[in-house]
Amino acid sequence: MSTPRELMNDPAMEPDARRHDVYWRSCLRIVAAILTVWAGLSLGCGILFRKWLDENLPTIGHAPFGFWMAQQGAIIGFVVLLLVYMVLMNRLDDAHGFGGDDE
Q: pLDDT tens for residues 3-14?
């Protein structure tokens, strides 16, 4: 698999095709990272490590931390991940000339 830097320097590819491949690979990398964090938050904190979180972290309100993460924390984390995705994709779009500035 070629890295984005190798794709940009490949003389056999057209410049537009190179730019598209680099953009697409970067986009997939961002999506994979966001999905990994989301899986860790929802599955890890809500199910796999819930007992450890309950025993080792303070309570929030009157609920153990693991229970709170399963019920509310994963939702809040998901919304934060949406915002992070928006910022990262806007930066990627601007870097590759796809930004839609309405000035």
A: 655 555 555 557
